[in-house]
Design brief:
242 residues; 7-stranded parallel β-sheet; 7 strands
Length: 242
């Protein structure tokens, strides 16, 4: 991992934060991106204090120029980019009958278009280097679609489809990995605008969620494989999850 330069979106908390800490501890140079600058700065200070190497830039994945700036930061600070972990995501899930169209649009913008913008920023760099790895964090919600999660699952499955097409177009030099987390102990429920659904998800989280470090370890496993080995899809969920 010592030679890897890894950019991570949604790095200020949850899976992104756990991944940054783990990869930095293993010797990777991490580039943090998220909207909450104060959280990024605090995380960067923790990594530096522990002997890690880090850079960060405020990144709103709804803005294509922010993803371009994240990749540019990696190149300016460390001379390149080996891995882009597209982890930023939101889940204001609700029944379709609620017609929370603004929430639907936000999920499309963050969960799907944010990944597209990351591909647009990193793919030319990976082609130029003749090496690169896309790690896209999706969800088990796309594997088992349940009520209230239709739009959320659709955005995650859009990334799943995009990633398979990207893998086929990537050729022998690039790698594409999907990580599908189940119920994770994060602040995911906080973004849910439907009160009853938010309570249901919070109860599941408090009952059997696994820590975000479990997903970080899966991401590290995929990154740490030899260059010719492409780990396609890893599903990580609690044993108690249906």
């Amino acid at each position: 991992m010592d030679s890897k330069i890894v950019a991570i979106t949604g790095a200020s908390s949850g899976i992104g934060e756990a991944t940054a800490l783990l990869l930095a501890a293993d010797g990777a140079k991490v580039v943090l991106g998220a909207r909450r600058s104060e959280r990024l700065e605090a995380l960067a200070d923790r990594i530096t204090a522990a002997g890690g190497t880090v850079a960060w830039t405020r990144t709103d994945v709804r803005r294509r120029e922010d993803l371009a700036a994240l990749v540019a930061c990696a190149r300016a600070e460390f001379g390149g980019l080996d891995v882009l972990v597209s982890n930023a995501g939101i889940g204001p899930i609700s029944p379709l009958d609620d017609l929370r169209v603004e929430d639907w649009e936000q999920m499309v913008d963050v969960n799907f278009k944010g990944v597209l913008y990351g591909v647009a920023a990193a793919l030319p760099v990976f082609r130029e280097q003749r090496i690169g790895h896309f790690v896209n964090v999706v969800s088990t919600a796309g594997l088992r679609v349940v009520p209230n999660q239709s739009v959320y699952a659709a955005t995650k499955n859009a990334v799943r489809t995009l990633s398979e097409g990207l893998r086929q177009e990537a050729g022998p030099d690039l790698r594409v990995t999907l990580i599908s987390p189940g119920v994770i102990d994060t602040d995911f429920a906080d973004s849910i605008t439907a009160p009853a659904v938010r309570a249901e998800i919070a109860t599941a989280r408090d009952s059997f969620a696994i820590p975000p470090e479990a997903i970080a370890r899966a991401i590290a496993f995929a990154i740490d494989q030899p260059a010719a080995v492409d780990v396609g899809d890893i599903v990580v969920r609690p044993t108690a999850q249906a």
